[in-house]
Write a structure and sequence with these properties.
With 424 residues, this protein is α/β, with parallel strands linked by helices. It folds into three domains: 175 residues, Immunoglobulins (Immunoglobulin-like, Sandwich), CATH 2.60.40.10; 196 residues, Rossmann fold (3-Layer(aba) Sandwich); 34 residues, no CATH class. The protein is built from 13 helices and 17 strands. The strands form four sheets. Strands 1, 3, 5, 8, 9 and 10 form a six-stranded mixed beta sheet that branches. A five-stranded parallel beta sheet has the order 14-13-15-16-17, with helices on both faces. Strand 15, helix 11 and strand 16 form a beta-alpha-beta unit. Helix 1 packs antiparallel against helix 2, helix 8 runs antiparallel to helix 9 and helix 10 runs parallel beside helix 11. 36% of the residues are buried.
């Protein structure tokens, strides 16, 4: 049920001046026993009073004739840095009498929307208003600047009496929380390098076996060494050998959320970019980060590939920094315990970590034994000793690891990490 409209009536500068002047003129008319002055003063004060009555009736008519407020946000959810658009429509009640009065209201009111600064980029927006006898609509752009859920609404309707002595501000409709996805970088073109390295570890050779399965259409990120040229020539399209073990090898992306709110977005964007790129390349992905949730225990892309991308991004919207260092370590240790159960079956692990304490390093060390674990360690600066020490400890445990900062390009650090794997 929509909340009851809240209305605020106020005198305009014209109304204040008219009321004050009428009072003074009326008082002078009484003092000088001049009836015309009294009549003028009373008429001026009466204009202000009549304006208040007119506004009360107008607001009542507005609420009764435009009871519905519909808000449409496109696209939904929004993405950081990508423009969106909102259309707010006040619709008239069907079958209500007084069509002429309804049209007059629609033509006289001004409509304004309240939006969080994170949805508009902190900039003012220009809206387009469309008026009709049965609806008033407002359309304006959005440019979200921060990931999360941000309030939109309620709408504010402004109207004034014909003489402009009073105005009214009425809130209509409710408040919506609009989800905003993080901005991601497309890394799918190099995912084949990651999965190809995992295949070489599995097969104990520099390249996968030659003809171990059927062929399928080439997908972006597939290793070109798996192209089956005879079949490609016959079909007229590029086909690759489809070793199901390699082509559908699952991946777990583990995100260690920083305690510093200012550093929160980079690791979330990096982890989401890696997970989405792997998912787009045809591999099921599990995204582990933050407090434990039942929906985060399974791999995306296996049962409902069509919705896997949006499901993964939806999991990043509410991620926030841990309340304490102990809570952050507990979240990471829980993710590691869930990852350990599947690594032995050929799963690839990619982690985006903060500098780690001894307990977390000891928990992560066994994941490196299979040679299919990769890590990006974020530090505050390029020479952050804690980040470098964590990367060195992970390499000693069998991980491929590199360091980065919040100013490092995600695609650059990803390429550095893959090059480290090829040289290993």
């Amino acid at each position: 049920m929509a909340p009851a409209p809240a209305t605020h009536l106020a005198l305009t500068p014209r109304g204040i001046g008219l009321g004050a002047a009428g009072t003074v003129i009326g008082a002078l008319g009484v003092g000088f026993a001049t009836p015309p002055l009294v009549y003028v003063g009373v008429a001026m004060v009466a204009c202000v009073a009549v304006g208040a009555v007119w506004l009360i009736l107008a607001v009542s008519g507005l609420v009764s004739r435009f009871p519905r407020a519909r808000r449409h946000v496109a696209p939904h959810p929004l993405t950081v840095g990508s423009p969106g658009r909102v259309t707010l429509t006040l619709g008239a009640a069907s079958g209500r009498p007084g069509r002429a009065f309804t049209r007059a209201l629609a033509e006289s009111v001004d409509l304004k929307e309240q939006a969080a600064a994170a949805l508009t980029g902190g900039m003012s927006t220009t809206a387009t208003v469309n008026r009709a006898a049965d609806a008033v609509s407002l359309t304006y752009p959005l440019l979200p600047s921060r990931r999360g859920r941000w309030p939109l609404g309620p709408a504010l309707v402004y109207c004034a009496d014909p003489l402009g002595t009073r105005d009214a501000e009425t809130s209509v409709g409710g408040e919506d929380l609009v989800p905003v996805w993080p901005a991601v970088v497309d890394l799918s073109g190099t995912v084949g390098v990651l999965m190809g390295h995992a295949d070489r570890i599995r097969l104990g050779a520099r390249s996968p076996s030659a003809d171990d399965a059927a062929v399928r259409e080439h997908r972006e990120g597939d290793d070109l060494r798996r192209v089956h040229w005879p079949s490609s020539a016959r079909k007229g399209t590029m086909l690759v050998r489809s070793d199901e073990r390699a082509g559908r090898r699952p991946v777990t992306v583990v995100l260690d959320l920083p305690r510093d709110a200012a550093a929160l977005e980079w690791p979330i964007c990096a982890a989401a970019s890696i997970a989405l790129s792997v998912l787009d390349s045809g591999h099921p992905v599990r995204f582990l980060g933050g407090p434990r949730g039942p929906e985060r225990a399974h791999h995306l892309g296996r049962e409902h590939p069509g919705s896997a991308r949006s499901d993964l991004l939806n999991r990043t919207v509410d991620l926030t920094r841990p309340p304490s260092a102990a809570a952050g370590s507990a979240w990471l240790l829980d993710a590691v315990r869930r990852t350990e159960r599947s690594v032995a079956h050929g799963e690839v692990v990619v982690g985006v970590f903060e500098p780690l304490d001894t307990a977390c390093l000891n928990a992560l060390a066994p994941l490196g034994d299979a040679g299919r674990s990769w890590a990006i360690v974020r530090g505050d600066t390029g020479d952050d000793l804690d980040a470098q020490d964590t990367a060195v400890a992970l390499r000693r445990a069998g991980w491929r690891a590199t360091t980065a900062t919040a100013r490092t390009d995600i695609d650059a650090v990803w390429s550095t990490l893959l090059m480290a794997g090829d040289m290993a």
